[in-house]
Write a structure and sequence with these properties.
Elements (H helix, E strand, L loop, with lengths): L4 E5 L5 H5 L21 E3 L6 E4 L1 H9 L3 E6 L4 E8 L2 E5 L7 E4 L4 E10 L2 E9 L9 H25 L4 H8 L3 H7 L4
Parallel strand pairs: 1-4
Antiparallel strand pairs: 2-3, 4-5, 5-6, 7-8, 8-9
Helix pairs in contact: 3-4
Length: 187
């Protein structure tokens, strides 16, 4: 089964193939600048015989992938090509906040500024219909830990309110030193 969406990360050595007829020569200079033949074939560097079709042509003509996106990390540019009929058409994205909604699969994608795995940058990120970023596994895990911590502390406060001593509550709930410190009144 063909994919429903393809996302390519551009690099200077592959952008001609990744962008096919949408490639603009000013995007690359020097040895990476290759002219495409009208049939979508890429000329071989050693002969005039053509190689198989470039990626965009395969996704468009053979696999018929409805959504083809390319992301250039060097300039944080996201480009979106939607299959309309039998050909891709580039869809315009807002340059200041590039984000798109894929109604048929009920998910969006955009460029998010932030930290991912401790690294700052501009990252591709899934979003909901309202443009709210979907949480990563790390964020979901952190959120679950924070909720569990809040629940334990609330249980401890409730037990303390019944007249139990801090030592009894600590033993009963197996509280850590950090949790006990949060329960002690400020001095």
């Amino acid at each position: 089964q063909a994919p429903h969406i393809v996302i390519e990360f551009l690099s200077p050595g592959t952008q001609v193939e990744d962008l096919g007829r949408f490639y603009q020569p000013e995007e690359t200079t020097g040895e990476d600048a290759i002219a495409l033949k009208p049939n979508g074939m890429v000329p071989s560097p050693t002969t005039e015989t053509a190689r198989p079709p470039h990626k965009l042509a395969v996704y468009e003509r053979y696999l018929r992938v409805p959504h083809y996106l390319v992301y250039n990390r060097s300039n944080s540019q996201l480009r979106y090509f939607q299959l309309v009929g039998s050909r891709y058409q580039e869809q315009v994205l807002n340059e200041s906040a590039p984000q798109l909604w894929l109604a048929d699969i009920q998910v969006g994608l955009g460029i998010w500024n932030g930290y991912f795995e401790g690294m700052p940058g501009r990252w591709l990120r899934w979003c909901d219909h309202d443009g709210n970023w979907l949480l990563t596994d790390t964020e979901l895990e952190r959120q679950a830990k924070e909720a569990a911590q809040a629940q334990i502390l609330q249980s401890a406060r409730n037990l303390l309110a019944t007249g139990m001593s801090l030592e009894q509550v600590t033993d009963l709930l197996n509280l850590t030193a950090e949790q006990v410190a949060l329960l002690k009144p400020p001095t």
